[in-house]
Amino acid sequence: MEIQEILDAVRAFDGVLVVIPDEGSGMPELAWGDAFLYYAPDGVMPERTQPYATIVTKNYPDDMASRLDEPDRFRVNIHVGRDQVGMLTDAGAQPMTKDAFVPHPLYGDAGWVSVVNPGPVTSDRVIALLRDAHAAARARANRRVSES
To answer: Which residues form the DUF6194 domain (predicted)?
Structure first.
């Protein structure tokens, strides 16, 4: 599965906002080219909300375990909730393993899973989890609106 296939799938979700920073975005250079997925039906990136998923294409200073500096590697990160991380991840997989769910190298304890280069084993589940994460983000946003 390629990055564009994932982005095409999520762009079909109601109210999704895909942010891909570049030189003119005002976001840090380190984030350029990565994708950040939000529920934002108004099309404006939320100021106080984290994305529900990301697609990263390079190592970050404290996050090198997935070896994203090697050619043709990317990682999909999805917030699934703490309860699901253990159920979804492959106990034998390492952060650099392709096509396997692992706890996010930094945020696994916060309920995030990761997949390097989703393939035949994980692609369908990645899209399903992205849909679920989007629905959860929508529900949180709707609760915030009804509480204010």
So the answer is: 1-145
Residue range(s) defining the domain that contains residue 39: 3-147
100 CA to centre of own chain: 15
Q: What is the pLDDT of residue 148?
A: 61
User: Taking the complete model, does pTM exceed 0.90, yes or no?
Assistant: yes
Q: Are 6 and 131 in contact (CB under 8 A)?
A: no
CA 130 to chain centre: 8
Over residues 105-137, the pLDDT tens digits come to 999 999 999 999 999 999 999 999 999 999 999
CA–CA separation, 14 and 86 (whole Å): 29
SS3 assignment, position 112: strand
CATH at residue 136: 3.90.1150.30
